[in-house]
Structures are given as structure tokens and as C-alpha cells.
Automatic annotation (TrEMBL), chain A:
This is Protein ROH1A. It is a single-pass membrane protein. The keyword Protease does not apply. Its main location: membrane. Coiled coil: none annotated. It is found in: Membrane. Belongs to the ROH1 family. It comes from Coffea arabica (Arabian coffee). It holds the Pfam family ROH1-like. It comes from the Eukaryota. The gene is LOC113703315. The keyword Transmembrane helix applies.
From TrEMBL, chain B:
It comes from the Eukaryota. Keywords: Coiled coil, Exocytosis, Protein transport, Transport. GO terms for biological process: exocytosis; protein transport. This is Exocyst subunit Exo70 family protein. GO terms for molecular function: phosphatidylinositol-4,5-bisphosphate binding. It comes from Coffea arabica (Arabian coffee). The keyword Transport applies. Belongs to the EXO70 family.
Length: 447, 640
């Protein structure tokens, strides 16, 4: 993968620098820079409309810019072209003449793509800080001897979340195609009953599927729900599908279908997030100055990213998903993280009351428009007066816009989640390699 | 189907005509003058038009005619739909009748839509009605489609499945757990050399249903209900693939689950995975692709995007399991599983390109390649690490009775199993060698190749056994008894030679290696004989001393020495019967050969039997008790 190559060269550069200058102060400086970069990147995601943006991450002294300027290239390969196209989703460092692009709406698809970019950047820098040029024996001494295994364990848990999210995005694409049917139907002129009913059928399936996903969170024996979430005209089309479950003649409806699950049957995304954050303790005292801090920061970012994905995208079993992760407020770098967290947490609380399939901005809008279009369909009478036609046209246009956003964004987002998956796997292997080396150093191999 | 085509053709030509006429009108509007040629053609047209009175009839008549047609088609459609039975079940002919009626409605709706006067209330109403009927019919067709598909799905229990189903029994989770020792042989029975499945294609749906399904597809696509068709089609096949995987015992597992699995369950899961991957990639996906192309081939990229959509979830279930296995700690016993997985995937590598050709599929293909690469790397790493693993096996107490150590057995059985994967491992190791040679100049490369004219696998295997020998050497130092040390080395090297000589391993090690090692264990044998027996037997030599007392003393000393050897060496063990026998024969020959002249000297000097405890035969017999691994003592015989 091209990402690896880029990153490799970037890490090499850092290691060369380190080897040349063995200055203990540099290490400290690295840690500070890392904190600053994490904070800066996360701040970019905050929706705060500051008219004069804070002095844009000024290029730090000669040896430091590597992480900032080269990391964004890591994700540039998301676009098929390797040239850095100015796109709303990329986190390319703002060029001098144009101001930074306005942040995409919070929790939208492009916001998440940006979030994942931020994650990948932080991760690359973290690895550089953690591994490159370090004395590997540190890994086997306190506090790292305990923190590193925890970190690796968290990484594995994150992999399952990635898989669940990938599956959730797949479900979103399914919903998108249902919404697309409604758009196609209602874009026809004149709007006739047939097309209205066609749209309604698709939208009802969409809403039922969304509701099932939501209900699923509260129902432990809900494997049918997941299956239902995917069905459209399966073994009896659309509206009939609901009746099919109760039809004793239909052998298939009741059969257990484990593969509709994203991960494993009993897997719960809420519990997974819980497990990831449970042993996450900020370093205290002297530890806070050493490598324990970046390990903590990276873990907090990882948990946050996974948590927000779970909250946004339909995910298996979300009951009891935490609304807040324990990150101490006094840490400077943590401010933007806490800010983001609070915003999403509030949204999640609202969701729990209202009941939607997830916090993803496009999805929430889709649900709203779908509900209103179904209402329209219910009250539809044939020749439609012009005012009504206008009104519907606006909604259909919005739905078309949502569909377009999904069409453009979901597959890349899914790819990015996959990239995060592979990155985590690779990094874990790299850390294990280092630990392995330490092990070998202590037991010399004969011949 | 034919009717579908003819009707469509009629509608099409009508549209062409309209388009052409528009064109003429437009062109006439644009130009101010007409030349003679143009005039002539237009006059012709005028004559033609005046002949076609029907077309020029007034709108009302036409609308009425449409209305009648619509009513007729509607009645037909409704009569079908009111029946609770599926139309497919009514029998052949009926279904096409229904499709024809629906197509008629579709065509009418299209004409109504394109009528210049579609603003009139009547036409609007008719259009609305037509679309309404069409919508109902389309919903019904979706149901029919799924019904037809499920009625005509072909069972996948062809010979291939049957053949392997008997192996499923041996795949059950209860199968024996490999433990540290010789258990790897169990692994080799895993049936990986089962029926090789070249990629082939089966009919997932009975061929008789294909034309009808295709017709439904054409009708729904023509009616602009393509998305609905695809949704139904995809969700049906998605489910079918899910079901198939479940039948293959595949389970959706989280990575956490896989990591927590014990070795036994994990191997079981891996075997399931290999089998499922062989089936899915080997023939199911190809069959599915063919079906999709048959039905949807005419609609551009729809076929492939539907196909990817359908397979994605199940394929990623397989991929994720592979990734999860790779996350597990790389223990040596995992090597076989990883190689199994690697071979399973690499066999289908050329087909993957076809299966996931389009853009949407290329991601899946990349994932497969990535997984394959990582499986290969991980396997290679474990293999290359194996030497270290062997080296790190140390102990502080000598192995009892000088027999073959567990480590020796483990290593030899391990590498014996590897032979089965020889080609794969060779290619994996070669890859690495090529990577390494990047740094060398051309001349150096050729030198390396010359030095390395044996395969990299052979090289690695030899290095593993030399690590083992070194390890054994270190272990042999733990023995206080020099003779036992040689017995130990002899036993273990002999075992290695045996294993290599009598298996495919010999091709990797070569005659030279075998000769050298036979010599080695023979050498240890000789050393043993020398150390144990030389000093004892040297006492029996005729050194010219004639004194009775002297002889008596010699006799006593010999007896004690022999008894001691007997006592300790009956407890030693040579597991290999032939080797044991050989050593006993050669030992007893030596002993008897030395003892015979001594005994005759004793007889000459009339030394009493009290001193001569053993006859030649006795000694021969007693030597036969050595190396059995059960300690015995000659003390009881003292008073004889």
C-alpha cells in the first residue's frame, strides 16, 4: 500500500534525525510537539466558528515540521490521484493565501473522513515518538511494561469496532439505495399515485430498517431484526415482508442467520467501547513526563474515534453506550477532545430519547425527510396542487442531496475505516517486534 | 421472451420516428429556403402522411383506444394478482401472459408520458392509472422473482460436497488435541490433500428458470424499476450465500473471540475456513458471477456492482477471520495452519482477478492479496524463527536413560510435516532471498546463487537440524557419565538420520548429509565402546603375570566392573531395536573375544569357580540385557 511507503520514509527521516542528534531535550520537545499536534488537529474538527483562526499551526523549527507536513500525504491516496487535490475532506495544511476550508458539519460523512485522517496522522506521529530511536528496553520496564500490553489490547478491540462500523456503513449504503428509489419515483412529473406509492414503499422499508436497528439496541434476542434491517422484498416484497415473519409456512424467516451480524452474535459495541476505556488511566507524577503520556493520549484518541463512530453509524448492540469518556480536564491537549466529546455526548443523549439509528448527520436528515415524505404519501390525492408539488420537490431535492453525499462519501469512508484497521494491525506488529527484540537481547541465541 | 423483444422493438421504432419528425420540423424552422431535392422528399412525406389516416385521427379516439387497452391489461393483471397462488406456480405460459400484460401497461404509460397532449386531464388521469397498475405489478414481480429464485435454486450437494462431507466428521471439534510430542502426525491427517477443486462453475439456478428471470429483469429495467429488481436480487443471493456459509459451519467471530480460542478450537476453525474459502472462491462466486452476468449482463456495470454487493459481506467475513488468525501469537504449531490458509488462497489467486475485476471489486481483491501476503510473511517468519525456538529449549537435568529427547522427536516430526508444504515454503523463502539480494551487485548475486545451488528450504532445514544438534550437544554435557553421553548422542542422531532417510526429507538433506551423520552416530557408538569397555577389557589382557593371586584379583576386578556396567547400562535405553541389537552384538563379540583367552588362562591356573563367576555364554546373555531401559542388578548371582 502506498500509505506504508510514505509513512516508512517519514519514519526513517525521523530516525535519522534522532541518530544524528542524541539530545535528551529533543525527546521532551517531541512529546510536547505531539501533544500540540493532537490538540491542533482535534481543534480543527470543532465546529467553533472563529472568525480569525488561531495562528495556523506555524511551521515549527527546522527539525520539527516532518510530522505536520508529511503526514497528510498518508491519506492523500484515498483519492485515486496522488496529487493533493483541495477537497473539503482533506486536512491538508492550509496554504498561505487561502484560509482553512470551513470544517464540515459536525458528525457528517466528511467530518468523519476528516476525523479518521486526524487519527491516522496522530497515529503515525505517535509511533514515531514511541518507537523510533528509543531504547527498546524501556518497553519492558515500568510503566511501559504494563501500558504497552494495554495499548495493544485496546488496539485489538478497536479492530472489532472497525469491522462493526464497516458493516454499519454497508447498511447505510443499503438505506441510501432505498432513499434513491424514493427520489427517482418522486422526481417524475406529473407525480402520480403509482410513483408516490412506490416511494412510500421504499421509504417505509427504510424507516422500518432504521427503527429495527434502533430497537435492536434494546433487544437481546433480536437477530431477526438485523436480518429484517437488510430485507427488501426478500421472500415476499416490502410490505409483505413484515407479514412473512408470522407466516408459519415460510421456513426461512425464522431461521437463525448469524452472518447478518457484523461481528459475533453476542458482541456488543457498547461493551467493547467500555472495555477499551475501562483501564485508561492518565499518567501521574513523574510518569506524566515520559512515554506514558503519549501512550495515554493515543489511547484516548483511539477510544474517542471508535466511540464516535459507534455513536454515528448503525452498530450492533449500543445499549448503555457511554456518553462521556474519562479524560481529565486539566490537560491542555485534551480540551478539544473534551469539547468534541461533550457535543457528541449531548447528541447521543437526545438520540436515546428520540430514537434514531445513529448520529450521522446525513442519516438523521435522511430519517427526517423520509418521515415527512411518508406523511406526504399518506395524504396524497391525485391531482396534486402546484404548491404541494413545490413543497415535495424541495424535500426530494434534499433527499437527492443526501443520497449524493452518501454516494460520494460512504465508500471512501468505508475504505478509510479499513485503512485504520490495517494501520492498527501494522502498528501493533511493529510494537510487538520491538518487544521481541528486547526479549532476544536478554536471551542470546546460540549459533 | 420473444414477445418482450418484439414489443420493445415496436415501441422503439415509434420513438425513432417521432424523434426524426421533430428533427425535420426544427430544421425547417431554421432554414428559410427549400431546394428541389428537399421539396421532393417533403412531398413524398406528405403523400405518406395522408395515407396514414389512423395516426392523424383525433386525439380523443386515440385516448379512448389507450384507455381500452389499459383496461384490458389491467383486468388481466388483476385477475392474476387476485389469486393467492404465485403466478410461477400456475405453470408455463401463464407467467409470460402476465409479463405481456405488464409490458403492455408499461408501453402505454410510456406513450402517455410522451404524448404532446399529456397536459389534458384525461391523459393525466390515464397516465396516473397506468403508473399505479405498473407499480402494483412491479411490487408483485419482486415477490415473484424471489419466489422463482427460491423454487429453482439448485442444491449445492454435488459430488464435491458429498465427498467432503465424510471428512467433516473428522473435522469435528472433538478431534484429538495435538500435544507437544509426536502429535503433529495427527495434523497431517487433516485431509488437506483432499479432492483438489479446480475452479469450476455450477448452475445456482435451474436453467429452465433463467429466461423467465431475465424477462422479469428486462421488464423491470425497462419500467425504470431497476433499483427494486437489484435490491430483491441482491438480498436473495446475499441470503443464499449466508446460508451456504452457515452450512459450511462458518461462524461470524470477533477478533477477540479468535484470540481467546484454545489451539484445538482454533485449528478446527481454520480447517473450516480453508474448506469454506475453497468452496466460495473455488466455485461459488464464479457460479454466482456467471448467473449475474446471464441475467444482468445487458445492463452495463449493473451486473458486477450487484455481484460485489452480494458477495461483500460474506467475503469480508472470511477475510476478517484470516486477519484475526494473523493477530494470534506466532507459535510454531501455527505454521501448518497458516500454510494451509496460504495455499488455499494462493491456489485461487489467478481467479481472484476475474472474480473481482471491476473497480468496486478491486478493493476486495486487494484485501485478498494483502491477506495472502501477510499469511505468507507470517508463515515465513515462524519457519525462520523455528531454529531459535529450538535453540531456546534448554534444560538443567540430563534426559533420563540417554534416550531420544522430546525435542528431537518434536523437531523431526515438525520438519517432516513441512515437506508437504515444501514448494510453498521454497517460494516464500525465495521471495525473501530475492529481496535480500537487492543490496548486492550482479556479480555477488551470481556468486550467492552458485553457493546456494540447493533450495532455500533445504538450507533452512539443515540449519534447523544443526541447531538441534548443537542443542543436543549442550544437553549431553549434563551427563556425568561419558559413555552415556555418547549413547545419548548416538540415539538422537540416529533418530534424525532415520527420519530423514525414510521420508521425503532425504531429498532436502541429500546423501552427503546422511552419510556424514551415519558416520557421526557410528562414531559415538565407537566412543561408547571404547570408554566403557576398553579399560575393563584391558585388564583381561595377558600381561605376562602368572601369579594366581594376580589372576584372582583380575578376575574379581573384572566381575565388579562388569556388574557395575550391567547395573547402570541396563537402565540406559536405545529405543531403536536394530541399533540396540547391533551394539549388543558388537559389544558381546568384543567382550567374549577378550574374555575367552582370559578364561582359558584361569582354567590353566586352576582358579576355582568361586572366582570365575561368568562363563562366556553368561556374559553374552547379560550383555543382551543392556539398553532396555529397565535397571537390573547381578548381585543376586554372586552366590552362585
Amino acid at each position: 500500500m502506498p500509505a506504508t511507503d510514505n509513512q516508512g520514509s517519514f519514519l526513517n527521516r525521523i530516525s535519522i534525525r534522532r541518530n544524528q542528534v542524541a539530545d535528551p531535550n529533543l525527546e521532551l520537545e517531541d512529546l510536547e510537539l505531539f501533544q500540540k499536534h493532537v490538540a491542533d488537529r482535534l481543534s480543527d474538527l470543532l465546529p467553533v466558528p472563529t472568525p480569525t483562526p488561531c495562528p495556523a499551526p506555524a511551521p515549527p523549527p527546522a527539525h520539527a515540521p516532518a510530522p505536520v507536513s508529511s503526514t497528510p500525504k498518508n491519506h492523500a491516496n484515498n483519492n485515486d490521484t496522488n496529487t493533493d487535490q483541495p477537497s473539503s475532506t482533506s486536512v491538508d495544511s492550509p496554504s498561505a493565501d487561502h484560509g482553512p476550508p470551513p470544517p464540515p458539519p459536525m458528525l457528517s460523512i466528511s467530518w468523519f473522513r476528516k476525523l479518521l485522517d486526524v487519527f491516522l496522522c496522530c497515529e503515525a506521529e505517535f509511533k514515531a515518538v514511541l518507537i523510533m530511536g528509543r531504547d527498546p528496553s524501556q518497553f519492558c520496564k515500568p510503566p511501559l511494561d504494563k501500558l504497552i500490553p494495554d495499548l495493544l489490547d485496546r488496539a485489538i478491540k478497536a479492530l472489532d469496532v472497525c469491522n462493526a462500523v464497516t458493516h454499519g456503513i454497508e447498511l447505510l449504503r443499503h438505506w441510501q439505495s432505498l432513499a434513491q428509489i424514493a427520489v427517482t419515483a418522486l422526481e417524475q412529473r406529473p407525480i402520480g399515485e403509482g410513483q408516490v406509492r412506490r416511494a412510500k414503499r421504499a421509504l417505509s422499508t427504510l424507516l422500518t430498517s432504521m427503527a429495527f436497528d434502533d430497537k435492536e439496541s434494546n433487544n437481546s434476542s433480536s437477530h431477526k431484526a438485523t436480518e429484517r434491517a437488510w430485507s427488501f422484498g426478500r421472500r415476499g416484497g416490502g410490505g409483505a415482508a413484515a407479514n412473512y415473519g408470522h407466516n408459519p409456512k415460510d421456513k426461512t424467516a425464522g431461521t437463525f442467520r448469524s452472518l447478518s451480524w457484523s461481528v459475533a452474535k453476542s458482541w456488543s459495541s457498547a461493551k467493547q467501547i467500555q472495555a477499551m476505556s475501562s483501564n485508561l488511566v492518565p499518567p501521574r507524577g513523574a510518569e506524566a513526563a515520559g512515554l506514558a503520556l503519549p501512550v495515554y493520549i493515543m489511547s484516548a484518541v483511539l477510544v474517542f474515534v471508535m466511540w464516535s463512530l459507534v455513536a454515528a453509524v448503525p452498530c450492533q448492540e449500543r445499549t448503555g453506550l457511554a456518553t462521556h469518556l474519562p479524560v481529565p480536564r486539566q490537560l491542555v491537549w485534551a480540551q478539544p477532545l473534551i469539547g468534541l466529546q461533550e457535543k457528541i455526548g449531548e447528541e447521543w443523549k437526545k438520540k436515546e430519547k428520540k430514537g434514531t439509528a445513529g448520529l450521522l448527520e446525513e442519516m438523521q436528515r435522511m430519517e427526517k425527510v423520509a418521515l415527512s415524505l411518508v406523511e406526504f404519501a399518506d395524504s396524497f390525492q391525485f391531482p396534486l396542487e402546484d404548491a404541494k408539488v413545490e413543497e415535495v420537490a424541495v424535500q426530494v431535492a434534499e433527499m437527492a442531496d443526501i443520497c449524493l453525499k452518501m454516494e460520494e462519501g460512504l465508500v471512501p469512508l468505508q475504505q478509510q475505516v479499513r485503512e485504520v484497521f490495517h494501520r492498527i494491525v501494522r502498528s501493533r506488529a511493529e510494537v510487538l517486534d520491538v518487544i521481541d527484540q528486547v526479549g532476544k537481547m536478554s536471551t542470546p541465541v546460540p549459533c | 421472451m420473444e414477445y418482450c423483444e418484439s414489443e420493445t422493438a415496436a415501441a422503439e421504432s415509434e420513438q425513432h420516428l417521432i424523434a426524426a419528425a421533430y428533427h425535420i420540423v426544427k430544421a425547417l424552422g431554421a432554414s428559410k429556403t427549400l431546394n428541389n431535392d428537399m421539396k421532393r422528399i417533403l412531398t413524398d412525406l406528405d403523400v405518406q402522411l395522408s395515407k396514414m389516416t389512423a395516426v392523424q385521427e383525433n386525439e380523443a379516439d386515440r385516448t379512448r383506444e389507450m384507455e381500452n387497452k389499459l383496461k384490458f391489461a389491467q383486468r388481466k393483471i388483476m385477475s392474476f394478482q387476485s389469486r393467492s397462488l404465485k403466478i410461477w406456480d400456475l405453470g408455463p405460459g401463464e407467467d409470460y401472459g402476465y409479463l405481456k400484460a405488464v409490458d403492455e401497461v408499461r408501453r402505454l404509460a410510456e406513450i402517455l408520458q410522451n404524448m404532446p397532449s399529456n397536459q389534458t386531464r384525461k391523459v393525466k388521469q390515464l397516465l396516473d392509472e397506468a403508473e399505479n397498475i405498473l407499480h402494483k405489478a412491479m411490487a408483485r414481480l419482486q415477490e415473484e422473482l424471489v419466489h422463482i429464485l427460491s423454487k429453482n435454486m439448485q442444491p449445492l450437494e454435488h459430488e464435491f460436497v458429498l465427498l467432503e462431507s465424510c471428512q467433516v466428521a473428522s473435522l469435528e471439534e472433538e478431534s484429538t488435541v495435538p500435544n507437544e510430542d509426536e502429535s503433529f502426525e495427527i495434523l497431517s491427517q487433516r485431509g488437506r490433500r483432499g479432492p483438489d477443486c479446480e475452479q469450476y462453475v455450477v448452475d445456482l439456478v435451474h436453467p429452465r428458470a433463467i429466461p423467465l428471470i431475465k424477462c422479469i429483469a428486462e421488464l423491470m429495467f425497462a419500467s425504470n424499476y431497476d433499483k427494486e429488481f437489484c435490491q430483491s436480487f441482491i438480498s436473495f443471493w446475499k441470503q443464499a450465500l449466508d446460508d451456504y456459509l452457515i452450512n459450511l459451519h462458518v461462524k461470524q467471530l470477533s477478533i477477540d473471540d479468535v484470540l481467546k480460542m484454545d489451539w484445538k478450537r482454533l485449528t478446527y476453525r481454520i480447517r473450516i475456513w480453508c474448506r469454506a474459502t475453497r468452496r466460495i472462491v473455488g466455485f461459488y462466486l464464479a457460479s454466482q458471477k456467471r448467473l449475474f452476468d446471464k441475467i444482468l449482463g445487458e445492463f452495463g456495470s449493473t451486473s458486477s456492482s450487484c455481484y460485489i454487493e452480494t458477495s461483500k459481506a460474506s467475503v469480508s467475513c472470511l477475510l476478517n477471520f484470516g486477519q484475526a488468525v494473523l493477530i494470534c501469537p506466532p507459535r510454531p504449531e501455527r505454521l501448518f495452519c497458516l500454510l494451509d490458509m496460504y495455499e488455499t488462497l494462493s491456489k485461487f489467486l489467478p481467479d481472484l482477478g476475474d472474480l473481482f475485476a471491476e473497480e468496486a471489486g478491486s478493493l476486495v481483491e486487494i484485501e485478498f492479496h494483502e491477506l495472502l501476503k501477510r499469511l505468507g510473511n507470517s508463515a515465513k517468519e515462524i519457519f525462520l524463527e523455528f531454529g531459535n525456538h529450538v535453540a531456546s529449549n534448554t534444560s538443567t537435568i540430563p534426559f533420563t536413560s540417554g534416550s531420544i529427547t522430546h525435542l528431537t522427536r518434536y523437531v523431526m516430526n515438525y520438519i517432516m510435516l513441512l515437506v508437504e508444504y515444501g514448494d510453498t515454503l521454497n517460494s516464500l523463502l525465495e521471495e525473501q532471498n530475492l529481496e535480500n539480494t537487492d543490496q548486492f551487485s550482479q556479480a555477488e548475486v551470481s556468486q550467492i546463487i552458485n553457493l546456494n545451488n540447493t533450495s532455500p528450504m533445504a538450507h533452512s532445514l539443515k540449519s534447523v537440524t544443526s541447531v538441534l544438534e548443537a542443542n543436543l550437544d549442550t544437553k549431553s554435557d549434563l551427563y556425568g557419565d561419558e559413555s552415556l553421553k555418547h549413547i545419548f548422542m548416538m540415539n538422537n542422531i540416529h533418530y534424525m538420520v532415520q527420519k530423514i532417510e525414510n521420508s521425503q526429507l532425504r531429498w532436502y538433506f541429500g546423501d552427503e548429509w546422511i552419510r556424514r551423520h551415519v558416520w557421526k552416530f557410528r562414531q559415538h557408538e565407537t566412543c561408547y565402546e571404547r570408554i566403557t569397555w576398553s579399560s575393563i577389557l584391558s585388564q583381561l589382557k595377558d600381561d605376562g603375570s602368572k601369579g594366581k593371586a594376580m589372576l584372582k584379583d583380575k578376575c574379581r576386578k573384572f566381575n565388579t566392573a562388569f556388574e557395575e556396567v550391567y547395573k547402570s547400562q541396563t537402565a540406559w535405553k536405545i529405543p531403536d531395536a536394530q541399533l540396540r541389537e547391533e551394539l549388543r552384538i558388537s559389544t558381546s563379540q568384543k567382550v567374549i573375544h577378550a574374555y575367552r583367552p582370559f578364561a582359558s588362562r584361569l582354567a590353566k591356573c586352576c582358579i576355582s569357580d568361586k572366582y570365575i563367576k561368568y562363563t562366556e555364554d553368561d556374559l553374552g546373555n547379560y550383555i543382551w540385557d543392556l539398553f532396555e531401559g529397565s535397571p537390573k542388578s547381578l548381585n543376586h548371582a554372586k552366590r552362585r
